[in-house]
From TrEMBL:
PANTHER family: LIPOPOLYSACCHARIDE-INDUCED TUMOR NECROSIS FACTOR-ALPHA FACTOR, LITAF DOMAIN-CONTAINING PROTEIN. Its main location: membrane. The chain crosses the membrane at residues 130-154. InterPro entries: LITAF, LITAF_fam. GO terms for molecular function: zinc ion binding. This is Uncharacterized protein LOC122868531. Keywords: Membrane, Metal-binding, Transmembrane, Transmembrane helix, Zinc. The keyword Transmembrane applies. It is a peripheral membrane protein.
């Protein structure tokens, strides 16, 4: 778990805690307001009890205000972390390679010179002069018992040919030697 993930979970827990505390304070305030209204209906004069309940309501209002500010700050931090994480996760669109001399040895997006369509090339490998050269070099070093055939098993030693999947024409062959 990365530090940003642990920070996100900590902020989420704190936001849940603040929401719960806020709801409890709102419920307490409602109850106090109801009691105060009932007392006012029962007796038409103000007593010390009603004054103390008004003070408690004022304190609850102040606490609620502080909780809202803290929640807004935490929400802003949470949003910044999530936004930064999403920006990191966004992948760039694949680059269209128009210069056929710069084609890599894996399938890529380009424009076919024959049919003029923008396509993702198909690639296949074939035995090249490098494959034969490595085969002869290993045979000369004494690997005649079949080890000299290893270069024929690896694409690293073979030429790569790009082909258009639409018109099946060969676009470019990348030779290894």
């Amino acid at each position: 778990m990365t530090s940003s993930d642990s920070e996100l979970s900590r902020i989420s827990k704190e936001l849940k805690h603040l929401s719960l505390k806020r709801q409890q304070l709102l419920d307490r305030k409602k109850i106090l307001c109801i009691f105060e209204e009932l007392k006012n209906r029962a007796e038409f004069t103000q007593t010390e009890e009603t004054t103390s309940s008004k003070h408690e309501i004022d304190r609850i209002d102040q606490t609620l205000k502080q909780l809202c500010e803290k929640k807004a700050d935490l929400q802003k931090i949470h949003d910044n972390i999530v936004e930064a994480k999403e920006q990191r996760d966004i992948n760039k669109a694949p680059e269209v390679i128009l210069d056929l001399e710069r084609l890599p040895s894996y399938p890529c997006k380009t424009q076919c010179p024959e049919c003029r369509q923008f396509i993702t090339t198909e690639t296949f490998t074939s035995v090249s002069s490098l494959t034969w050269l490595v085969c002869f070099m290993t045979a000369l070093m004494g690997c005649v018992a079949g080890c000299c055939l290893i270069p024929f098993c690896f694409d690293k030693f073979k030429s790569t040919t790009h082909r258009c999947p639409m018109c099946r024409s060969s676009i470019q062959t990348i030779k290894k030697l």
